[in-house]
Structure formats: structure tokens, C-alpha cells
Amino acid sequence: MTVDEMLERIESFRDLEQGWDSYDASTINEYTIEFALELAPRLSHNEDWFVAPCSGGEILFESNKSIIRIYRHE
């Protein structure tokens, strides 16, 4: 996933509503999204990163070498 693709995907998390996973998943709050948007361009360009929302309101970055989870901040 390119940096631009990651940024676009993270932006899409703003549209997730409570229960987006059919199991009462939390929304992703603005602080968490903004932090992820700042982090994405700084990740190693030598790794292929995947980014996904998590049901607890976190954002997960994962590559074949690393996992980074940004926890929900209130």
C-alpha cells in the first residue's frame, strides 16, 4: 500500500459509525485519525504497510516486519 493509499484509507475511517463491524465497534475519533495521518508518511518505505480500523476505536498499521497500533485517546 502506498503512502497516498494509506492516507486515503485513514481518511475513510471518519465515515465509520458506531457498530461499523456489526458487533458494536467504536468509531475512530479525530485524535486517533490525525495521529495516524501524521504517522503514515514517516513509516519505512522499505516495507509494504497495511492499515485497518480496529473494533476498539484503534488504528492498526501492519507490515511483514512490524505492527503498530494507535490506541483510542479520549
Describe the structure.
- The chain is of the alpha+beta class and 74 residues long.
- It has one domain.
- The protein is built from 2 helices and 3 strands.
- It has helices at 3-12, 30-39; strands spanning 50-53, 59-62, 67-70.
- Strands 1-2-3 form a 3-stranded antiparallel β-sheet.
- A hairpin with a 4-residue loop joins strand 2 (59-62) and strand 3 (67-70).
- The longest helix is centred in the first third of the chain and has 10 residues, at 3-12.
- The radius of gyration is 12 Å and the shape is globular.
- The termini are far apart.
- The relative contact order is 0.23.
Short description:
The chain has 74 residues and is α+β, with helices and mostly antiparallel strands. Helix content is 27%, strand content 16%.
